Amino acid sequence: MEPRFLLLSDVAAELNVSDSQVYHMVRSGELPGIKVGGRGQWRVERARLEEYIQHKYAETAEWVRDNPLNDRDAE
Question: What is the architecture, at CATH level 2, of domain 5-74?
Answer without folding.
Answer: Orthogonal Bundle (1.10)
